């Protein structure tokens, strides 16, 4: 029984975080299947989603939670700038941007002690 207790937080994350979101994602796929990507509605929804994501990222950078609060603001801003530059240089690759930004953030925090 004790061996399963270590998995309890992960099971809660899956049950409370992942599964409810997956239902909405699948419904979104079904509903959006026939929509034209260049329609005004889809363009507007994409713009709102992008703005919301940008707002969340800005909030995390300017008012960091937890351990990120120990990282200096200049380093957090540098990581965002490097990540964005990598995103653009690697032909709009989100993976390249995230990896580059994370590398700068982790290396900078490690060097700062």
Overview of this protein structure:
It contains five helices and no strands. The chain is mostly helical and 113 residues long. It has a domain at 65-113. Helix 4 (73-89) packs antiparallel against helix 5 (94-112). The longest helix is centred in the first third of the chain and has 25 residues, at 8-32. The model has no long low-confidence stretch (mean pLDDT 90).
Summarize the structure.
With 113 residues, the chain is mostly helical. It has five helices and no strands.
Q: Unreliable segments (pLDDT under 50, ≥5 consecutive)? A: none
Strand content: under 5%
Structural class: mainly alpha
What's the Cα radius of gyration? 19 Å
Instruction: State the distance separating the first and last CA atoms.
Output: 39 Å
**Count of β-strands:** 0
Produce the secondary structure layout.
Blueprint: H1 2-5, H2 8-32, H3 40-62, H4 73-89, H5 94-112
